Amino acid sequence: MSAQLFQQYSEFEDGLVKKFHAHPLYRSFHKLSKEKFIEYLLQIGFIAQNFVKWYETAKLGMQSETAREVVRDILRDEIPQSGTTHQDDRLYDLNLIGASTEQVRNVKPSAATRKIIERLYELVRYPQEDYDLRVMITLRIAGEVLVAEQYQHIIRYMRVSLGIAGSQSRFYFPHWQHDLKGAKVEGEPGHTDSFDKLLESMITDEQKLEVAKDAAEKAFEARSDIHDQFGRKPYRVLLQTVGATIGLILAVFLGTNVYQKTTKPSYYQFLAKLPPQSRDFYLDLEIALIKRAKAGIDVQNLYRIGTWKYVSEVWGDQP
User: Fold this and answer.
1) What is the reported pTM?
2) Which band of pLDDT confidence, cut at 50, 70 and 90, is reported for residue 313?
3) Maximum CA pair distance of the chain?
4) Environment class of residue 298 by beta-carbon count within 10 Å: exposed (0-12), middle (13-18) or buried (19+)?
5) Spatial distance between the Cα atoms of 243 and 116, rounded to a whole number of angstroms
6) Can you list the domains of the chain with their CATH numbers?
């Protein structure tokens, strides 16, 4: 029975993999400029930098010693006793692709990336019901299965667009090899498949199967959503869309004069020229104020949206 239930889970997991590859970013991934490709690698790299800490944090709440040992085996691969660490290898690949060490060391995580990392840690919070099952599924999906699928696109871009063969890669290609579902490493199961026997023993009935699917879905969403920051419309188009949407909502509250004020071109041209952090600050607060107004809170401040003094008068100093 457990084998059949695990097979059902595995098929559900395969469906998530297909959804992962259907993300809009991957439809045009091959068209990314080298600069955008590097930007993408640097942002997803913050997840890689958190890998060991995230796995260690998750492991400390586990009751099953078998589960802990599965995690320990993976961590031992991450930090070998001799030679380079995986982060050394990641820097090597990034340098090979064209990113400078200074660029790698000084890049900051975007607001979207920070939120994804927070979500990943939230998924392994302690305590929670069915902790061992939920967390092992989370690590398998977000830490292994989808890593291999993501790196598949990266190594293809490296080969096709940059002329870098898999044999030249020390980080992305080896990770794709040992994280891929069904992979064998020196005759032994790869990282993803090292979870199989344990998960089969944990998914013992339909209720546990649903728990596993729920955990997998949440882990999939967290790992997949980091791509949204790269697959959006250009900011100029986005700002026009946001401005029009906010204006239409405000028109319901205060009339068409506010709509004209909110979509004032100079205001959104001003936003378009801001650094990403400041721009996101303005947009997030406008959306937050709209939500508060819909809940009957701060309605008196709606007229301030789309004005130059909006942030300082309503929310305080900008970042």
Assistant:
1) 0.73
2) very low
3) 70
4) middle
5) 26
6) 2-231 (1.20.910.10), 235-314 (no CATH)
